Amino acid sequence: MDKKIDEKILEYITQEENIKSRKDIFNGPVKIRDIFYEFIEMEFFDKKLKMYIPKDFEDMTIEARKFKYPSENRPEIIKSNGDGDIAITLKLIDDPLKENNIKKLISTLKLINKRLNPAFIFFDEGILEVDNKKIGFYDFKSFAIDDSLYNLVFLFEFEGKTMMGAFTCCYKDSDEWKDIAFEIIKTIKVREEEKEDEK
Question: How far apart are the C-alpha atoms of 49 and 150, rounded to whole Å?
């Protein structure tokens, strides 16, 4: 009886330690669903945007892009794992954006998404301060033909325009990936253009 109790306590402590350790994407490989992911800083959009993503994530193939993102308006950047069921996307939208309008834009996008997809289940929305930049976000559960997905949408001002990103994974894995996805967002760095003095 005592042995069983000790085993349960040990199991609980181990679970707590795993939860703590897997949130730190800077301190070596992170174990998620029995797979170890090493996170490295990658550069996008002419090295003007940097963020940490799993080292093994690669550019999704053209065929997979067309299947998973059928709209011709698909993101420019789609990094995914080998199976393509975990992805990070980035798309630069040619619409002007000022930081003081981010909260309003997030609420508007969420409302439109709700109206178009009433079955979706929405969770949180808010603003993160990352490297002196405001990043708006909202997350939700969507439904595919044979599965449900966890989606974290984020956006921020990039060279006066709207940079929209997203993290997606199977909903059944969201308990392990959600915190990691937010940690990824918190690594975003934007290189601001230096303005030359006019002569």
Answer: 24
Whether the Cβ atoms of residue 60 and residue 80 lie closer than 8 Å to each other: yes
Residue type, 111: L
Q: How far apart are CA 140 and CA 41, in angstroms?
A: 26
Supply the pLDDT for residue 111: 95
> In angstroms, rounded to a whole number, what is the distance separating the alpha carbons of residues 198 and 78?
38
Q: Which domains, from first to last, does the chain contain?
A: 56-190 (3.40.1000.10)
Q: Enumerate residue ranges in the chain where pLDDT < 70.
A: 1-8, 10-23, 193-199
In this prediction, residue 146 carries a pLDDT of: 79
Beta carbons of 25 and 39 less than 8 angstroms apart: yes
DSSP string, 35-99: EEE-EEEEEETTTTEEEEEETT-EEPPHHHHHHHS-STT--SEEEE-TTSSSEEEEEEEEEE--G
Q: Count other Cβ atoms within 10 Å, centred on residue 39.
A: 22
**3-class DSSP assignment, residue 121:** strand
